[in-house]
Every structure is written in C-alpha cells, then in structure tokens.
What we know:
The chain is α+β, with helices and mostly antiparallel strands. 41% of the residues lie in helices and 23% in strands. It has helices at 2-17, 22-41, 79-85, 106-132, 206-216, 218-221, 251-256, 261-269, 284-291, 315-322, 327-336, 345-350, 352-355, 380-388, 394-397, 402-406, 413-427, 440-453, 455-463; strands at 46-51, 58-67, 76-78, 94-99, 139-148, 151-156, 163-166, 182-193, 196-202, 225-233, 237-244, 274-279, 297-303, 308-313, 339-344, 468-469. It comes from Gaopeijia maritima. Keywords: Cytoplasm, RNA-binding, Transcription, Transcription antitermination, Transcription regulation, Transcription termination.
Amino acid sequence: MANAGQIVAALRDIGSTKDLSPDEVHDLLKDGILAGLMRIHGPNVEAEISIDEQTGEFDIVVLRRVVDEVEDPSSEISLEKARWDDPTFEVGDIMEIPVDFTQFGRNAVMAMKQRIVQRVREGERQRIRDEFEDRVGELLSGEVQQTERGKMVVMLNLARDADAIIPWKEQNPRERFRQGDPIRAVLKKVDETPKGPRIILSRADPLFVSALFKLEVPEIYQGIVEIKRIAREVGGRTKIAVSSRDESIDPVGACVGLKGSRVQAVVSELGGERIDIVPWHPETEVFARRALAPARVSRVVSNPERQVVTAIVDEDQLSLAIGRNGQNVRLASQLIGWQIDLYGSREWLEKGPEFSLFGDRDEDQYETADFPLAELELAEATLAALNGAGYNTFLDIIDLERQDFLRIEGLTEEDADRLLGLIDQLTVVEGESDSSDGDDDDSDDDGEGEAATGSDETDDAADDEEPEDSED
C-alpha cells in the first residue's frame, strides 16, 4: 500500500497549502476513492473507507446486498454468487468485498483526481464567499497582476487565489498602475460567475474615501466620530459630513489631524483629490450652509415640501460657492440630499419683488408663497366671482391688471381697486424706495441688510469652524 501512503502524503501537502484541516483532507480522500469505485463498479456503489492516521494507508470495503435477482449490479449480488464465497449467506445479508488500491485502473484514478480537484475548488469558492460577502465597504490590499480590456486584475494579500478585479468604471482616471504595483481598494460587492465568486473592488466609490478615513482616524474606527454623509466626484473633489458622539471631540479636527497629517494621508492615496470636511447638522438649513463651504453663505431658506434649499451669498463668494464647473454646489446638493438654488446678493435683490412675498418671516421661502383667496379679507360676492372665473389662489391673480379684473363677471371697479391694493400690499419689498437708484453700492448694502434678518443663522455660520481643504 505504498502508493496509497504517497497519495495521502500528497493530499496533506495540498491541505497545508489550501489551509485544510486533517479531517477535511480525509473527507477529500474518501470522496475521491468513492468516485473511483463508481467508475469501476457503478454509480450506486456503497463502500466503507478507513484511513490510518499514523501510516497514511487506507482500507476499502465494497458493500453489496444479497438478493435473489440482481437489478443493480453496483450495489447488489445474487445469492448464488454470494454463497460461492460463504455458503451461509441468505437473502438480505450484506456482503463485504475488500478492494486493493492496486485494482484501480487509469480511469478510476482519473475519476478520483477529478473529484478531489473539484472538491478543493468548491471549498475554496465557499471560503471566499464566507470570508468576503460580509465585508463590503472594507479596505483590501493586494498587487496588480495585469490590466486587460481596461479592468485591473488584483491578487489580494488575504486570498491570493481569489478572482478580484477593479472594473474601468471603478477606477480613478487620474491614476495609473503597472503590473506588480501595490494597490488598495474597497470591497464593493461579490459577484457570482460560472467560475465561482468574483470580488469587485473600487477606488472610485465614496466607500473608498470612507474606508481610508476609518484607517487613518482612530476616532472613526472606534465609533466616536461618524461619517454621516459623503459625496464624491472621483478625481476632483469629495465632501464628507462628520459628527461626534463625544462633545469633547471635534469631529472635523479629528479627521484633519495634527497639521493636516490625517487628511493629507487620504489625499495622497486619492492622487491629490481635494477633500472638504464639514460638521454634520440635523437641520437642513444649517447643514446646507456648512456644505457650501469654503464659501460663506449670507442666508439659507428651505422648502421641505419640494426639498429645495435657497442660498444667498455675497458677490465675492459666488464663484467660490459655485466651484469649478459648478462642482462645489453640486456636491453640496448631493451631500444634503436636497436641491440647492444658489443666488448672488445682487441677483437676489433684482428678483426681490417676485421672490420676497413674506420676506420678514423666518420660515419664508424665497419663492412667492401661495395660499387660497379665502384667506384674504374679501366679500363673499367678490370671492364667488373670482372662483367662478377659475381664480382660487393668490398666485392666480397676482399678475392680473385692473382691466383683467373688470372683465370678470360680478366684479365692480371698487372690487378691482380693492384687489389691486391687496396685491400691492402683499408684494411690497421692504427698503424698495432706498434702493431705487439702482446703485451697485446700495445693492450691496441691501444685501447685507437682508442677510442680517437671518441673524441666528448667520451667527451659527460664524461660530462654525471653517472646513478644512486638502490643498490649503
């Protein structure tokens, strides 16, 4: 049985390479031997296989049931043949037939090899699934093996046999890697393919930035500082919003590090991509003001129903708030999850009569607020005439002239004058007479005055620590 001992020794070497336990090696060998016996005796063969752990040798015994008439030769034997070996056999007995491994022919050995290789591959695939399917979002490291058709094939340090790739769309277009270069990426998902699980990595996903900060900032790893939101345009800029569970720890300062050491480590891994770190806030208006950093925002008003935020900035801050090709305001909008309408102070003042219907109220929207005509102090006959003509809300009549009202059946000249007076009263802009000269300096002063009406919000912004920028 020297050959059998060599087979067991070889399987043990494979087991050590594939990180298999002795029991798993024995199961592989038994399954392989059974596959070889199926090739010799048939698909339904039953056998007892024992392996000596000391010598590595194994014994094989084929089991066959004694029957009057054989229907399945692979698992049954006739009573007549069974009594050739032992006359005491009766129908229903189990006959044990010892098999020497030397009886295995070429076909049986090949079947045994194929079964073992198949089992080893299935075991590897299952281990990869078990190891990586619950690790989405984690940072993995490896080495670039090759680049084919735009995708990078990576050999992971943790599982060198795993099929891991970085598709083209998950790469940073500003980066170039060559064969043999070390690389880090975030695990995005595990795909199932006909050849087994495939690990999809990414350096373009926002999760990659989050994973790098978790690596560089101990407070994030410990759960003290949390990344609440993240918005990224790969290769250009990233905005992250952070909060702290410990009031004594500044979340922005923790992410920036001493002299910017922590954020610079992340920026270096991202190939110089700019990073804005802002403190998260549960109130959308405050959060939007911070998200537009490094620009200073004069006033912010939100419309929860439409999920729109209107932000007004001074003229010297407008280009900074917009960013290159609109990148800053676009990322800020993604960060807060609402649309941001951005206006300069001069443009906003020019839109004042149209946009500032209830400008003195904190809950104002910078769009004209609509409401039913029934809320106005109108006579029932006037209200009925307007409703009969299809005018039901204030915005329905806001642009009508005197002659338009007179065309409505049931309205008198006094009713028309009354309605025009109400429209003028509700759409008057405070300070309109002061800015009538159209002077640019006066417009700037009015803009500052309007910003002062939101003094609470302005003070909040002044108190907020200015977010760090990786290139500053």
